[in-house]
Design goal:
5-stranded parallel β-sheet, 15% strand, 410 residues, 8-stranded mixed β-sheet, alpha/beta, 13 strands
């Protein structure tokens, strides 16, 4: 059976040389190369969504790839697709880099300039390892089961539009449906998840920021287990410490959570940080919450354009959620979709703060009455996104034309 090999690199000349050499290997079937980390992960996710048997046995990552650095990309691929063997191609074949690559989950390292014999040996060994793993686990679906949980980010078009409430209720809905769920507060300077759930905590996301290998024990020590069953990773109590959480740290933290929980909901707030940008880029679903008023919709449009300029997320890969919707409002969800150029959640959240005021003031958002139209809408949104089963009769309002929320299922 041919060995399927997926090359990945940003340098066209280097990738062309790599593909040429791979084509000469016996029983090799090189796939069309991908040019960056996002394309690589998306390609693998699409294949895994159809069938894990469709995944290539070997992925060859050139050191010149971005926007995610090569070692971090290797780590993410190894966590999300554990039966895919990754080979790193690099000019630095030192013992230090070799050890770092192995720690990240690579199955081999090939030095530049490329040698046919070395590349052939590494590809053969990694392909045999990949085939053995799949055979040992019995069926491709079992290889992927239990890893690569769904990541949903929730961002606000501006402050005060309800992003945190949305994130909390989505996480509660997922947990209530029996899916182990983690809620992360990456609104690093002004995160309010702890206040909404009335908890006192000692550890925060900052405690993981400098750890390069986040083991299950380290992760368990950093999270807070809420009475609802949610696992919480909270923003620091001292907002200035948020600067310690870099984009690299955020990638490692989200990857670690994704490998342990079926659903990871990330509250990114309304201000873009490096950590928040990394989470939005990694997410299967990126939600942008807005209210149906001119200022908030302008903020949503500005955010979408900024994400596009910074190559964080394309507009069509972003889903807008309209909060505080009413039928009499001049700005309706369909208009918001046209203005922003995004996908639109079918579920619009009604304007009814009276239902929320008591539980928000008490910090007991998890005790919001099930008869609340706001809760019904947010839990229906969780069902729409595939995070939970939507209850019959839940409130759905507003927009039409919901499309492709999750990168994996495209």
């Amino acid at each position: 059976m041919p060995t399927r090999i997926l090359p990945a690199g940003a340098d066209p000349d280097a990738v062309r040389s790599l593909v040429t050499l791979l084509s000469q290997l016996p029983d090799a079937e090189p796939q069309p190369p991908v040019a960056d980390s996002t394309q690589l992960v998306d390609s693998l996710a699409r294949l895994a969504a159809d069938s894990v048997d469709e995944l290539p046995e070997v992925v060859v990552v050139h050191e010149r790839i971005g926007p995610v650095p090569a070692l971090e990309l290797v780590r993410e691929v190894a966590l999300r697709f554990p039966a895919v063997g990754v080979i790193l191609v690099t000019t630095d074949a030192s013992p230090g880099l070799f050890a770092a690559a192995m720690d990240s989950g690579a199955r081999g390292l090939v030095a530049l300039p490329l040698s046919y014999e070395e590349l052939a040996s590494r590809v053969q060994a990694v392909a045999q390892w990949s085939t053995g793993v799949r055979r040992h686990l019995g069926h491709g679906a079992d290889v992927f089961g239990g890893v690569g949980g769904t990541v949903v980010t929730v961002s606000g078009a501006k402050g005060g539009v309800g992003a945190t409430l949305t994130a909390v209720q989505l996480a509660l809905a997922a947990q209530a449906s029996g899916r182990p769920t983690a809620l992360v507060d990456l609104d690093l300077q002004s995160g309010d998840v702890a206040s909404y759930l009335d908890i006192q905590f000692r550890r925060s996301v900052v405690d993981l920021a400098t750890i390069t290998d986040i083991s299950p024990r380290v992760l368990a020590d950093a999270v807070f287990r809420h009475d609802s069953g949610l696992v919480l990773l909270l923003a620091p109590a001292e907002g200035e410490r948020g600067e310690e959480v870099t984009d690299r740290a955020a990638r490692q933290i989200v990857s670690a959570l994704r490998s342990r929980y079926e659903v990871v909901v990330v509250d990114c707030g309304a201000q873009l940080s490096g950590a928040g940008a990394a989470a939005v880029e990694m997410a299967d679903t990126a939600l942008l919450v807005t209210t149906p008023d001119v200022i908030a919709v302008r903020g949503a449009k500005r955010t979408v354009r900024m994400w596009d300029r910074l190559q964080i997320r394309k507009a069509e890969e972003t889903t807008v959620v309209v909060n505080r919707h009413s039928r009499g409002a001049e700005i309706q969800p369909a208009l918001v979709q046209r203005i922003t150029g995004t996908a639109l959640a079918r579920t619009a959240v009604p304007a009814n703060f009276k239902e929320l005021q008591a539980v928000v003031d008490a910090g007991r958002v998890h005790e919001l009455d099930s008869r609340s139209t706001v809760k019904q809408a947010l839990w229906a949104l969780a069902g729409e996104l595939g995070l939970a089963k939507a209850a019959e009769g839940t409130h759905r309002g507003g927009g039409r034309g919901s499309v492709g929320f999750r990168r994996r299922k495209e």
